[in-house]
Amino acid sequence: MKFGRISRESPDGAIARLVVVEPEKGRVIDLARAGALYAMGKRHATQAAAMRLAQAQFPGSMAQALGASDILVDAATEAIQGSYGDDASLDINNVTWLPASDPPVLRDGLTFVGHIKGWHERMQREVPESMLLIPGFTKNSPSTAIGHNSVVPWPGYIKSKMDYELELGYVIGREGGSVRPEDAMKYVFGITLYNDFSGRDLQHNELPIGMGSTKSKDFAHAIGPWITTLDEFKDLDSIPMEVRVNGETWGKGNSGGKLWTVAELVAYVSLGEKILPGDVIGSGTMGGGSALELGRELKPGDVVELEASGVGVLRTTMGQPIDGLWWPERRKPFM
């Protein structure tokens, strides 16, 4: 099953709605609407009660909805049956997409051997021994998550070497802490696409500080177009993946060739802290899945499409650089 989030207009302005996505039928189903119709038709609830029940069961927040992930799929399947789903359906081409999840915490791993080698070569850095000891990941800002068909904000302090990153996003479906790899996949609800945009020139200056990438990445994180539940994938290491820029293929491969498994990454992330429903953990970039590895870069107006079989296509357009932002002045050397 596929779940997404869209924005709909209401008397009080735009509101987020949880939807079931049926690409093969060219439609999405507004679950709050379908759930209310089902409650009135099958349960004989009053309209007011049916709306309260449906909105509680199918909130616009994916994180809140996944708090009940053990029943979410069953409840959605029930709500969209027959005419209830038909009467709550919308044309898939005429909806405004929100980030597929609104993650309480957004993390990004580094697991693909091809990208690890290619990134370090292009950034003129040695692959550290520590990468063989522990899975690497960063914590990113969830406040800058954007959805399918969005324009990517381009802060003017990134002058050149703007980059995309072709990644899968593992969406957490239940709360846990210090889980073990053999149990970790029980906590993964589904898979989405994740584009971790990166300003490589600024990243080159940030990394020697030793605290990771910050402003070179936290201006935009595209998550979408929707989430496909884990049961629809036979092998998480053989998902075909591709990235296109303005319709031209810039990278193609699959989800294999990892240094650390999905289960190991999820387990490591959870050590000593909580993973929460709605959290997104990026797989890291597929080998050859960044412009950096090709010696290329993005320009304003470029249309970037990430595709993964079984998920879909996450499309974004690079915006114009935002001028007039403050930037720190160089300090004098230490005495």
TrEMBL record:
SUPFAM superfamilies: FAH. It comes from the Bacteria. Residues 106-317 form the Fumarylacetoacetase-like C-terminal domain. The keyword Phosphoprotein does not apply. The keyword Protease does not apply. Keywords: Hydrolase. InterPro entries: Fumarylacetoacetase-like_C, Fumarylacetoacetase_C_sf. GO terms for molecular function: hydrolase activity. This is Fumarylacetoacetate hydrolase family protein. It comes from Cupriavidus lacunae.
